[in-house]
Amino acid sequence: MTDEIDGNAVSAQIRSELEASIDQLGESGVTPGLTTVLMSEDNASQTYVSMKQRACENIGIDGQTQELDADQPAEDLFDLIDDLNARSDVHGILVQMPVPDHVDKRRVFRSVDSMKDVDGFHPENVGRLVAGNARYKPCTPHGVQKLLESAGVKTEGKEAVVVGRSDIVGKPMANLFIQKAPGGNATTTLCHSRTTDLAAKTRQADIVVAAAGLPEFIDGSMLSEGTTVIDVGINHVDADNDKGYKLVGDVDFASAKQKADVITPVPGGVGPMTITMLLYNTVKAASLQTDVPVDLP
């Protein structure tokens, strides 16, 4: 029988344990602070920022949002980032993507203080991850590791295939899988849109992480019996309902479930973990910047 990983339950458990870490900081007069910067009129981004704000409030993090109009000069954003970098009460800074076309995304990543880069996108933090000495693991890949751990899925010695090579999920996920560390030690293949005979690669895998951004792209015919399937995708597809759409992942859940021993649903799988691991990184950042040790889950 296939085991469906409940991302909501795993997320709730980690947040509960993080509250104890926040209490440890509070005993030394420290309240973790996270500021999200929004420079977009994108509805999805605005909704996501609101979710982060509520998550911070619920757990005891001082969550703030700074908004800029999408047509403001790029230098307004970089001036704001400089101000936040200098504030001792702000331990984490997250610039919500996407930013407008006239803003250099790479410069954004470089501009956030690497100690406050709770997304893990600053070049220094990317380098530390690749070198096996991560300061902050990118939130979604770290969440995937936590889901696998919760399900008792061992990665050591396993064949892992990551489908998708984004800077946010695919590349850091592959890097985490190959590390000499818990949740790593896997023989890892990173696939993408130009991979020849993708199905042959995924059928060899013990663990498949689907993060290509293509609705129901991976189906049961591309999997072997007993595979663990982690679906990172969140896609809107047309549906005959009140909303006119439904959410699906990068995996065709119905057919993949016939082959998989362990699988994540969409929604309710990886999604809840991303914000939770952002909270985790913010608490860690507050600890590192104030030299107040905490026990992290």
Give a concise summary.
The protein folds into two domains: about 30-115, 3-Layer(aba) Sandwich (Rossmann fold), CATH 3.40.50; about 140-270, 3-Layer(aba) Sandwich (Rossmann fold).
Account of the 3D structure:
It is a single chain. With 297 residues, the chain is an alpha/beta fold. It has two domains: 28-114, Leucine Dehydrogenase, chain A, domain 1 (Rossmann fold, 3-Layer(aba) Sandwich), CATH 3.40.50.10860; 139-272, 3-Layer(aba) Sandwich (Rossmann fold). The chain is built from ten helices and eleven strands. It has helices at 7-26, 43-59, 74-86, 105-111, 123-130, 139-150, 170-178, 198-203, 253-257, 271-290; strands spanning 3-4, 33-38, 62-67, 92-95, 159-163, 187-191, 207-210, 227-231, 235-238, 245-248, 260-263. A six-stranded parallel β-sheet has the order 1-11-8-7-5-6. Strand 2, helix 2 and strand 3 (62-67) form a beta-alpha-beta unit. Helix 1 packs parallel to helix 10, helix 6 packs across helix 7 and helix 6 (139-150) crosses helix 10 (271-290).
Q: Any descriptors?
A:
16% strand, single chain, 6-stranded parallel β-sheet, Rossmann fold, alpha/beta, 297 residues, 2 domains
Task: Give a topology summary.
Elements (H helix, E strand, L loop, with lengths): L2 E2 L2 H20 L6 E6 L4 H17 L2 E6 L6 H13 L5 E4 L9 H7 L11 H8 L8 H12 L8 E5 L6 H9 L8 E5 L6 H6 L3 E4 L16 E5 L3 E4 L6 E4 L4 H5 L2 E4 L7 H20 L7
Parallel strand pairs: 1-11, 2-3, 2-4, 5-6, 5-7, 7-8, 8-11
Antiparallel strand pairs: 9-10
Helix pairs in contact: 1-10, 6-7, 6-10
